[in-house]
Amino acid sequence: MATIFSRIIAGEIPCYKVAENDRYFAFLDINPLAKGHTLVVPKCETDYIFDLDDDTLAGMTIFAKQIAAKIKEFSGCKKVAMVVLGLEVPHAHIHLIPMNTENDVDFRKEKLKLTPEEFVEIAAALNR
Ligand code: AMP
Q1: Residue 128 has pLDDT above 90, yes or no
Q2: Taking a C-beta distance cutoff of 8 angstroms, is the pair 52, 92 a contact?
Q3: Is the shortest distance between the CB of 49 and ligand 1 below 6 Å?
Q4: All structural domains of the chain
Q5: How far does residue 89's CA lie from ligand 1's centre (Å)?
Q6: Residues 41, 44, 49, 52: is their CA dihedral positive or negative?
Q7: Element (DSSP H or E) covering residue 73
Q8: 84 lines ligand 1 (CB under 6 A)
Q9: Does 29 sit in the ligand 1 pocket, CB within 6 Å?
Q10: Per-residue pLDDT tens for 67-88?
Q11: What is the pLDDT of residue 1?
């Protein structure tokens, strides 16, 4: 069965899309730690990120780098954290999270509750 991220990529489940090319897809995390928290995923369905072949993994990092620059510009944060963790969705993904302190990437923190309008606005800003 396709993962939820593959169904998002296929357009079967809605998302707030940030960027896409032939190999990768980026969209806003629905439970963000900060405004601009984005997930980057490969279109190929692989659970564990280090099972990706070298070329796909390297390309994913470069794709994430381009989006991180947009997140940094949008949020004015000091750095964008690149985090790989979690067991919830068996589809490799990188979290990109605006960061001013290390506490900003504490996944035990309460997540932001954003309105659909806010999500649309953020995705549009990162899409430019
Ligand atoms: P983890 O595997 O722990 O990194 O968790 C998966 C991440 O995907 C979590 O941060 C979720 O909020 C996020 N997530 C799960 N489903 C969706 C969805 N439909 N749209 C956007 N983000 C999602």
Answers
A1: no
A2: yes
A3: no
A4: 1-36+45-81+111-128 (3.30.428.10)
A5: 7
A6: negative
A7: helix 54-75
A8: no
A9: yes
A10: 999 999 999 999 999 999 989 9
A11: 82
